[in-house]
Amino acid sequence: xxxxxxxxxxxxxxxxxxxxxxxxxxxxxxxxxxxxxxxxxxxxxxxxxxxxxxxxxxxxxxxxxxxxxxxxxxxxxxxxxxxxxxxxxxxxxxxxxxxxxxxxxxxxxxxxxxxxxxxxxxxxxxxxxxxxxxxxxxxxxxxxxxxxxxxxxxxxxxxxxxxxxxxxxxxxxxxxxxxxxxxxxxxxxxxxxxxxxxxxxxxxxxxxxxxxxxxxxxxxxxxxxxxxxxxxxxxxxxxxxxxxxxxxxxxxxxxxxxxxxxxxxxxxxxxxxxxxxxxxxxxxxxxxxxxxxxxxxxxxxxxxxxxxxxxxxxxxxxxxxxxxxxxxxxxxxxxxxxxxxxxxxxxxxxxxxxxxxxxxxxxxxxxxxxxxxxxxxxxxxxxxxxxxxxxxxxxxxxxxxxxxxxxxxxxxxxxxxxxxxxxxxxxxxxxxxxxxxxxxxxxxxxxxxxxxxxxxxxxxxxxxxxxxxxxxxxxxxxxxxxxxxxxxxxxxxxxxxxxxxxxxxxxxxxxxxxxxxxxxxxxxxx
Length: 526
What we know:
mainly alpha; Serine Threonine Protein Phosphatase 5, Tetratricopeptide repeat; disordered C terminus
């Protein structure tokens, strides 16, 4: 992953925002046409530089710069002067960015320094942080990692003080990349992890993609190509979603390197060619040069020395144009490798020595190791054992500094620890959620059991009540039946008595009537 790409993304997402919402290009252009105040025009022009496509924004940037300079010459009031100076610093920074895209390190640094001076004058801390990071990028691209680290850490400090999380994450990622290039894998992983954690918190997809690619590079450098490929492809998917041409090109290149290491050179060549085509579209010279080296290596491994040498030389020309010392060192060593393969030992010695001197100058352990290894072989064929031994010792020293067991183990453990912690957190959340659901379910089941037990209890009580009620009712019925029998018997007895009395009365009636008739007849007679 090239640090240049990361910083370009950083600059775009962290630059000044004067509008709460981004209007459409058409509405901005219409507003610019009808705007009467220069301060309003400047605001609109600034927004156009932020939202216009590649072929237009530079024109708007020049218009903004000219208008700002015209108004500053009129000696405006203090509050307007500060605004105009802020715009001016932004336009100069943008010009530096253009030079950086063209791999013109001198032009980029010159404009960044001008921008930084203005930002310091008006105490524009956000602008200062952006400019410092951009300067760090340029120094990294030309191989001056110590200066790059100094500027990136200055930018990080400002972002921490201003609590700019997105700025912090990009600075951490860039610093991790610098340590990675210096061979300090432990520190590189540490900074990558910090960066990725913040990016995930704020859902910064471009930043996440860059971090995924960088972690993939760590795995690749440790020989774990399977995990490296996983991270590269994750990064590629995000870049495709974001329609980020340089990000896609970088991902293609990295995936190609994996297949190259596995010996699948046809597949690797396809990825390198796709990457190169995209880089040519956006004029990414450093990326093109890097791809040419890798394409040359494929042809070298196929014993096609002429094609390999052709691509190495094309890469060297581009790297010299953009003053990329590390790229130049790599090209010198690769050209020396071809001459060694052709048994042209003097030419091989010349280019390999150039590579070693330049690699020592810029302080890249990997380049020093590669040059020393190649020189050891060349001195062997030239029958110079003393120099061969010196190069072998240097090779061992650089190899151990890059790949010693302690660093390798600590780095991988640290990386895996982070991955494990992420998974553990996710698992813990899942377990907690499952426990919560289980607890709710158990409570529901417990409540249901209580209802069930209560229902059963009520049923039993109701049964007992009904049984007792039935027993009492039955008893009462028996009593009533018995009483009814008694009543019936008494009624029968009474009826019998009445019947008997009637019979008696009936039997006595004729006698009384008879006596009455006798008495009546006697009375008549008297």
